[in-house]
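Reopening this one. Same input as before:
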Amino acid sequence: MRLSKCIGRVGAGLAVLGVVYAVQRTEPQPFREYPGDEYRLGQIPRPPDYQQKAEWVFARLMYPAIPDAHFGHARWDWTQGRSSWTNDYPRADRHFSEAVRRLTRIQARSVEQPVNLDDKDDVYNYPWLYAVFVGEWNLTDSQAKVLREYLLRGGFLMCDDFWGTRDWAVFKESMERVFPNRPIVEIPDNDAIFHTVYDLDGRYQVPGEWAVRFHIPYRNDGYIAHWRGIYDDKGRVMVALTFNSDIGDSWEWADFPEYPEQYSALGIRIGVNYLVYAMTH
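Same output, byte for byte:
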């Protein structure tokens, strides 16, 4: 992947193991791979070192979709892929993992790990969890309970690529099962999450690759980018929301000449900051 020249190399010396072991409870599931909604199973080749163990793995949240999910996602068995949670998967995951290897001292695995909240305690092996298309997720009560426990124990969830009024309503319905009484707020510019590695006061909306083709930088009525979050009782961001932006596409298309460099530059910086924050707070 050709990362933009404007993304400087960073040596982030991290005290990460304490966070990892505070969350970890059981042996993680072995690497598993599913067909996505954009890529066939095996279409994105596995890197030669995909079985190499590492201190951090890109953990992607699997979840059931709402009945009227886009692109017929609800027709498929979400536990077998081709569902809403597979958007940009696995290309975005592997590109971002490569960026983490280049830009930090975190020992990152070269391949992602889909994480199912119904797999007992497996989620506790991952201090950082990514969920895409959360405007289509439909968590069960038991999944919401596991996710709540994971976050309160120190886990971190990044929710991405959901746009406008409808997606927000669907997102909130499931999130309110996770945290019925915790408010969702705008994260202030001076929060540490925007300053762990990069200073990101000047953020802007990050549209997907589709914006290049259709010349429309937003979806639905999601005109303005929001950087929202849910805090725990100690002031730690547990859930970070990139609402009205498509950070996953900025990773997925970072090596695509027609995708604007400025979006991948910010998207990768956002991801690195969120990851480092998750592993140090």
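So the earlier flakiness isn't reproducible anymore. For the record, The beta strands are 59-62, 113-116, 128-132, 156-162, 185-186, 226-231, 237-243.
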